[in-house]
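Memo to structure team: turn this sequence into structure tokens by end of day. - J.P.
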Amino acid sequence: MATFLKKYWFFGGIVLAVLGGFGFRGLHGWLREYEILTIGIFLAFFITGLTLDTSHLSMAFLQLKAPLAAMISSLIFIPLLSWFLARFVFPLEYVLGVCIIATAPVTVVSGTVMTALGRGNIPLSLFICVLGNFVGVFTIPFSLKLLVEAGGHVNLPVLRMLSSLVITVLVPIALGKLAQSPLKAFRSRYRQAFSVFQQCIVLLIIFNAVAGSGTNIRAAGASLPLLLSFIIFLHSLILAMNFGISKIIGLDRPSTTAFTIHTSQKTLAVSYLVWSGYFASQYPLALIPGIVYHLTQMIMDTFVAERFRKLSQPA
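Reply from structure team:
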């Protein structure tokens, strides 16, 4: 039982975060007043830079076709596919939410963990992560503006959003990277704790979103099964698309694993920054698609990674 809880505590944490959001809605104001979540997200990205091992990135850099294809898929194909499908199913608020998570860069921790579980190409996974988060910060405002303004009257302050993302995402990652040498022993000793902390920040994001939008979420309860079905279908298409792209560009099995899994994942932290900064008051439900996508990718990609792992074993 202890082993099961240790392995799947995050999924139990999601349930508790949702229930806690409904039961302790007053904490939403406290988190906002003292900037608790803002500080937590900054520390999470600082830890990303502190623990990011880039010593083997030169191996992936020599094969640019995979990282470039990953950027095209993650930052162009996935947003376009998500927007195109969502606009036929949902009203503007959910379409906006789907676009926010679709334009976000790839995940940092879970993508590499899933790649390792599937015995994939870790240097390629890291390169997709680094390049995706750097480029994604600059593409999000423009991509989001094109998509949401094509589907409704939503005006975005592109330059303000761009500067905000640079400060809240790239700056702490850069600071963490600069601190790697002086904190070498510290980061090695507490690497596992850092990973748990970053996952707890995701749980805090979910709690805060539910606590701040509890009444609206209850009102939208009937649409949640449809949203879950849509996200499962969408993520399945994205996984299949990225697997197909990896075959078209001729990747080997470990690189196919890294490309398929990591390129298909999206970060909830950046999505939250975009939503809370520009859409939370007018579109309180727009973060729900991101939360559902994050939960879906964590569950589905675990099975995908296990499948790749079995295929890597000799018959």
